[in-house]
Amino acid sequence: MRPASPRRSFARAIARGYTVVEVLLSMTVLAIGASAVMSMQKAALQGNLDARKTDMANSIARMWVERIRRDATQWTLPSPVNPSGNNFASAQLLQYVGTGWVLPTAYAGQTPPVSPGFDMLGRDITNASATTSPPPVYCVNIQETYVFTDGTNAGNNLIRVDVRVLWVRGINGGATNPCAMATTVLPSPQLYQSVYMTTVVRANGLP
Length: 207
Fold this sequence. Notes:
The protein contains two helices and four strands. With 207 residues, it is α+β, with helices and mostly antiparallel strands.
């Protein structure tokens, strides 16, 4: 019997195709590569979302610092013109001195509202209570303390205002209301992200 020629044996080897083991190995390599790509995509999505939320939270904190400064312009007495007067109560956002962290709701009933709760786009939510639906994405807490007090002239008092903006970590964090958390509790870094901003205000004495 004549042995098959090398060319015919080579053609037969090509025609036989892939074995089951080779196919399974290929599928395994493909699955490992696909899982790595999906993990990287999830991490990239989470990183982009965190960066966008942090940027929005910083904008909200700056907004609230400006609100407090603007509200403080109503604190104009005592002054050289009226040394015995005091209209400190007119600055409603400064009425939280010495009370610790609070939700600043002094002007929440206004239209448009000045609310401690904000949606994803950084817009005030009319009602930021624990039962608000849909809940706010961001929540503002403030803390006010006297840096300096003058017993003879309250117009020299300095008030430090700390602004804290909270939001829930994770892609699906929008289902939780950050304003429902007690302000006396330190936010858990595993559950919440936060940014802080500080300013100092004083009386705007009339000339």
